[in-house]
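Example (one chain per record):
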Amino acid sequence: MREIISIVGQASWVAKIDLLILLILSITSWAIIFEKIKLFRGLGKENQKFLLYFNRKPSWADLFKHSREYRYSPFPRIILRIYQEFRSWTSATSENYNNYTNDNNPSHARKEPIAFGPLIEGAISREISLLEKRLIFLSTTVSVSPFLGLLGTVWGIMTAFINMGMRGSANIAAVGPGIAEALITTAAGLAVAIPALFAYNYFVDRLRKISDELDIFSAELLQLVERERSS
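Predicted structure:
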């Protein structure tokens, strides 16, 4: 370890900047990874608990009260948003209410599912966007880190050949520092990219499953809205 630190200390300014950028990427990536692990762990437990309650077909008011108990799950937040819109709709003036729900007016009857359908889809899209937050950084780290490592590799080999030409010798003292510098930056680039790659793929897979659950949930929620509207 001391040898590596010594080599880094004697490395060229290009290699030092390269390693500094990789260090920043690594620290930020791990911070995001730990944050997302905590999020998805809490989200998984809360999703299961909430869906068990939702499948019992509770009343709209009970579902609203129950939804305020959750911190991570996107399902309760969607419920709270739709409930607010639903309450606004039911508290409208009598004239607007009758115009909106009059069975003798087919055009208004056809518009009702479209009114809440896009609202639910919009709420789901916002929740997915929140869950995807900062994942783009992991994706960027996966793409950029190997190239930063490659830059350090090329620069280190170039330094080794320059030293070899200046000394007129290919002994280890001439080429050793440059080759060591090249290998360290290569290893650093891979060390940053590999964990970010595994984490990114894992989180994307979790998001895909949650997205599928939200699609199913949206259809059931729309049915609940229609049932409450007609009651």
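Caption: Residues 93-98, 106-114 have pLDDT under 50 and may be disordered.
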